Amino acid sequence: MRIGLGYDVHRLVENRKLILGGVTIPYEKGLLGHSDADVLLHAVKDALLGAAGLGDIGKHFPDTDERYKGADSLRLLGEVGKMLLLKGYVVNNIDATIIAERPKMAHYIETMKENIATALDISVHQVNIKATTTEGLGFEGRGEGIAAQAIASIVIK
Ligand SMILES: Nc1ccn([C@@H]2O[C@H](COP(=O)(O)O)[C@@H](O)[C@H]2O)c(=O)n1
Ligand SMILES: C[C@@]1(CO)OP(=O)(O)OP(=O)(O)OC[C@H]1O
């Protein structure tokens, strides 16, 4: 079994959609990025790429490449899943944490899990997503941005 870690942060700004785990969440601000800025999926992809020894998302989907402007992070997650399969790996499990003061994520967690499982062609039982605040502390606590952490384990097919 191999294990990988992922971590990402995006800034919250006005006039952007808030997309997390492929779910568009009603909120007064959204995350800024070259892609759709889905910070949760970025952390998940980095965890998977890390576990497989395949580098990180910036290596495979550079933010200088126009092809990834506004890119759908769920589609890119599917591509990462295919990269792992090509190397002979299958996903064992994924666990992730969204770090955000607001909005409340609880209502959207199940759909996020389903989206990730579908993109990777795995069972929803292999995916766990959590959310936490930082009790008002730091950039997440001030609502300046959202962070996500992920860990993934993979096994040889
Ligand atoms: N953006 C968030 C943050 C937290 N939750 C849920 O609330 C629980 C308590 O959060 P604390 O930071 O006070 O520990 C947490 O376990 C989550 O279930 C949430 O839905 N959205
Ligand atoms: C997937 C990419 C593609 O531009 O998304 P960004 O929105 O630029 O997000 P970031 O986490 O800064 O870097 C990863 C990029 O490769």
Descriptive key words:
60s Ribosomal Protein L30, Chain: A, 157 residues, binds ligand L45E5XJ5, 5 helices, alpha+beta, binds 2C-methyl-D-erythritol 2,4-cyclodiphosphate, five-stranded mixed β-sheet
The averaged pLDDT comes out at 98
The main pleated sheet reads as: 5 strands, mixed
Overall form? globular
Determine the structural class based on helices, strands and strand pairing.
Answer: alpha+beta
CATH class label: Alpha Beta
pLDDT < 50 stretches: none
Helix count?
5
State the CATH topology. 60s Ribosomal Protein L30, Chain: A
Biggest sheet strand line-up: 4-1-7-5-6
State Rg. Answer: 15 Å
**Strand content of the residues, in percent?**
25-35%
Q: What is the helix/strand order? A: EEEEHHHEHEHE
Total beta-strand segments: 7
Bound molecules: ligand L45E5XJ5, 2C-methyl-D-erythritol 2,4-cyclodiphosphate
**CATH-wise, what's the superfamily?**
2-C-methyl-D-erythritol 2,4-cyclodiphosphate synthase
Q: Give the CA-CA distance, first to last residue.
A: 11 Å
How many domains comprise the coordinates? 1
Q: Mind telling me which CATH architecture this is?
A: 2-Layer Sandwich
Helicity level, as a percent range? Answer: 25-40%
Pfam families: YgbB (PF02542)
GO molecular function: 2-C-methyl-D-erythritol 2,4-cyclodiphosphate synthase activity; metal ion binding
Binding site for a divalent metal cation: 8, 10, 42
Binding site for 4-CDP-2-C-methyl-D-erythritol 2-phosphate: 8-10, 34-35, 56-58, 61-65, 100-106, 132-135, 139, 142
